Amino acid sequence: MPAAKYGHLVKNLVFQEFPNRKRARFESNDLEELELIFGWGIWSLAGEYDFGVGRHLHPHAECFVLTGLHYENPGHVSTEIEIEMGEEGEKQVLDSPGIIVAPPDFPHAPIIIRNSNDRPFGTMMIYLGREYTHSNVPVKDEPPPAEKKYGGLVQKFEMHDTERKSGGNADYIASWDGKDIEGVNLNLTWAFHTGLGTWHEKDPHYHPYGEVLLFVGLDAENPEYLGAEIEIAMGEEQEVHIINTSTLVVVPKGLVHCPVITRKVENPYGFSAISLNNEHETTWLG
Ligand SMILES: [Fe+2]
Ligand SMILES: [Fe+2]
């Protein structure tokens, strides 16, 4: 059998254990040198966790995504992320599935995460550079002004019910893009899937930018378990890869990919397409 040409782009998630969470992280050199460092965390926190990071900034944008893990209640989390923003340290809170954006050179942190019960949740860390560097920013003595101005950097996801009748595409999906925030070359989706069959009608396709495709199980105790078996075709050759554990697929700029076909589902699973451009652009070839 010939060696798989694209096997190196299909990566099982390997989780490291932290207090209250398990996390899989990919550096840019794991991701074909995309301008991306990516982490997926799956949390079983009841109570409060302080990341213990002081105020800092990075030369590239850093985004934090909060997701629920419950198919029955896709738009809900019992979690909030509190973050201090700007030199002023203005407090902002995200308390639903959504995204917090720290643009390039924008001071942020400390960050505290709270969960009011023992319901698990997920987080993504998306850093839009190849090297994770930071500079500390001094904390001012005076309290932040009463009038808030950074609310636009904290955006909730609308989990849209697709009323899917057939095929393997999403049952519930949120889409987000960074086109209103300077220096944030990112658009993404977060979705829950249970369907069998082909995801899109017009595959294969490609994009003028790189993307990663995250297929994740929703069990915080066993985050490698996907609960589904999915085929994805890679390249013009349509080389088929089987995804049956939590997996990240790297799609460099211009690489033809898909169709995606779901063959088996035991449990609902999560999917995210994380694309390195501030709006979505697809050329369909099917
Ligand atoms: Fe940061
Ligand atoms: Fe794609």
How are the SSEs ordered, and which strands pair?
Elements: E1 10-12, E2 16-18, E3 21-26, E4 37-43, E5 47-50, E6 56-57, E7 62-68, E8 79-85, E9 90-94, E10 98-102, E11 108-115, E12 121-127, E13 135-136, E14 154-156, E15 160-161, E16 172-177, E17 187-193, E18 197-198, E19 205-206, E20 211-216, E21 228-234, E22 239-243, E23 247-251, E24 257-265, E25 269-275, E26 283-284
Antiparallel strand pairs: 1-23, 2-3, 3-4, 4-12, 5-11, 6-13, 7-10, 7-12, 8-9, 8-11, 10-14, 15-16, 16-17, 17-25, 18-24, 19-26, 20-23, 20-25, 21-22, 21-24
Bound molecules: fe (ii) ion (FE2) (2 copies).
Poorly predicted runs of 5 or more residues: none
Per CATH, which architecture?
Sandwich
Q: What number of structural domains do the residues give?
A: 1
Order of H and E elements: EEEEEEEEEEEEEEEEEEEEEEEEEE
Output the structural class: mainly beta
Distance between the termini: 28 Å
In short:
The protein is mostly beta strands and about 290 residues long. The protein has strands spanning about 10, 15-20, 20-25, 35-45, 45-50, 55, 60-70, 80-85, 90-95, 100, 110-115, 120-125, 135, 155, 160, 170-175, 185-195, 195-200, 205, 210-215, 230-235, 240-245, 245-250, 255-265, 270-275, 285. Strands 1-23-20-25-17-16-15 form a seven-stranded antiparallel β-sheet, with no helix packed on it.
